[in-house]
Amino acid sequence: MVYPASTRPAQGLGETPGDDGAPVLLHAQGIVKSYRRRRVLNGVDLTVRSGEVAAIVGSNGAGKSTMLKICAGLASPDRGRVSVRGRLGYCPQDVGVLDFLTPGEHFTLFGAGRGLRPAAASRRGRELARTLDWSVGRRTLAKDLSGGTRQKLNVVLAALGDPDVLLLDEPYQGFDRGSYLDFWKNVWDWREEGKAVVVVTHMLSRLDRVDQVLDLSPRTGTEATL
Amino acid sequence: MSPTFRTLRMAQATLRELTRRRGVLGLLLLVPLVFYLGRHDEPGQAIRFASLGLGFAVSAAALFSSVGGREIEPRLALGGFRPRHLHLGRSLALVGAGLAVSALYALLIALDQDVRHLGAVVLELALTTLVAVPLGLLLGLAVPRDMEGTLLLISVIGAQMVMDPAKDSARALPFWSTREIITYAVDGAGAGSLAPGVAHAAVTAALLMAASCAVQAVRLRRRAHMQFG
Ligand SMILES: Nc1ncnc2c1ncn2[C@@H]1O[C@H](COP(=O)(O)OP(=O)(O)OP(=O)(O)O)[C@@H](O)[C@H]1O
Ligand SMILES: [Mg+2]
Fold first, then answer.
1. Where are the extended beta strands (E) located within chain A?
2. pLDDT tens, B41-100?
């Protein structure tokens, strides 16, 4: 199904009106952001419901990462608001893990934030890793992981606490083809589970299956839909 | 789940990271030793320099730890950690490691030197660690990279070494207590006194701790545009 985001009336969080049915989990409204004098985002809106996948596309420097950070609450916009229902999971574009910890130690640390005991966090992390075709070694430190594997660690950490809203910034960089397909299979599973998923992507071949596309390219205006 | 659970996990992760950076750790541990041996002929000066070297090493470790956590902490805060869990956890790990190192140097001094009040030296080394940790954390929060922080730290320690401790303005320096207590320990009550040194260290450590905690909380605050339903 395709929902033209620009034609949808603004709705409050969690409202379940009419035929759309599912509650809104992420609602960004009128996001404006400039760096020095340069306007990067100019009144961008994004509404994602439970069980929806949104893709953010645009050329390099279009503001995709900036938009995602603002949605995650890691950067402040000059204007605009973001409402979130439920828990957030965020996967940054540049790998931000602790070099001298093993993946397993990352699982227990991040799990603690979500109230998971070490054993449970470790089990859940390994489960998620397996869905990305990664069997977690016990001793390798994060700094010694391959680039693609480190990115898998990042995705697992974002998904670890069973978040309701997942914000993923080009999460599959360096994935091999099999892992890339596994990643999208995960995305469709998360959609089935009723999560709201936002993926920054350049891979246009996948866009036919997402529910909405936010195009931040300056050429085409601030928002377009598929 | 108790709130200390997150703090302890954070402390554990910090301690692991710290102890696995063998190269940096080894070089930092060497600083006080080099300072100590450089003045070995004069007991009072040797202990003074070793203590300031310890202050430098522990502050630098805290600085690197704080700068190194800059990327991960916002993610952890997003994932259920409160700023105070992160700050307290990191501080606990650093204080623990710092006290272990100061115990090592206390042992060295006890075996190698004949000081009047050995207990005061032990206390002074512990207090130096307690001041150094929040000093390093605060520096780490204030500077863009650890290079700038290290240079700033060298200035602070350098000023501490060259400034006349009798001057009132010397009390503005974080490690004033270190010299004051050592003077007491080595030369006896006539030359220095214990209580003002201990008080200075306690106040300095508390102020630095409160300041670094506050800066951390502001850094990781919930942004005004976010609304959670
Ligand atoms: N902290 C910052 N300070 C100054 N300018 C910034 C900052 N962060 C981003 N920018 C600028 O904002 C613009 C958008 O950056 P952003 O990272 O959001 O782009 P992007 O769409 O994610 O690009 P890419 O496809 O390369 O990841 C860029 O021109 C970038 O230089
Ligand atoms: Mg980007």
1. 24-35, 38-49, 52-57, 79-84, 88-91, 165-169, 196-200, 212-215
2. 888 899 999 999 999 999 999 999 999 999 999 999 999 999 999 999 999 999 999 999
Q: Does the structure show a pLDDT above 80 at A223?
A: no
User: In which domain, by residue range, is A125 found?
Assistant: 97-163
Sign for the pseudo-dihedral over CA of A114, A118, A120, A126 = positive
Predicted complex ipTM: 0.90
Q: Suggest the residue from B16, B78, B81, B218 to mutate for an interface test with chain A (most A CBs closer than 10 A).
A: B78
Residue A79 neighbours by CB under 8 Å, 6+ apart: A30, A31, A32
User: Of A140, A163, A186, which residue sits at a domain end?
Assistant: A163
- Nearest alpha carbon, ligand 1 atom 26: A60
Examine the domain organization and report whether A41 and A20 are in the same domain.
yes
Which among B20, B74, B226 has the least Cβ separation from residue A82? B226
A98 chain-B contacts, CB cut-off 8 A: 13, 17, 68-69, 72
Q: Do B229 and A14 touch (CB under 8 A)?
A: yes
Nearest CA to A47 among A14, A69, A73, A74?
A14
Task: Collapse the DSSP code of A44 into the 3-class scheme (helix H, G, I; strand E, B; otherwise coil) and give the result.
Answer: strand
| CA dist., res. A137 & res. A55, Å (int) | 32
> Domain check: are A151 and A175 in the same one?
no
For residues A120 and A21, state if they share a domain: no
Q: Tell me, what amino acid is at A193?
A: E
Give per-residue pLDDT as tens, B170-226: 899 999 999 889 989 988 877 667 899 999 999 999 999 999 999 999 999 999 999
Number of domains in chain B: 1
Q: pLDDT, tens digit, for every residue of B144-176?
A: 998 999 999 999 999 998 888 788 888 999 999
Give the chain A residue whose CA is nearest to the CA of B224. Answer: A76
Query: Residue B190's domain spans which residues?
Result: 3-219
Residue of B17, B79, B222 with shortest CB distance to A98: B17
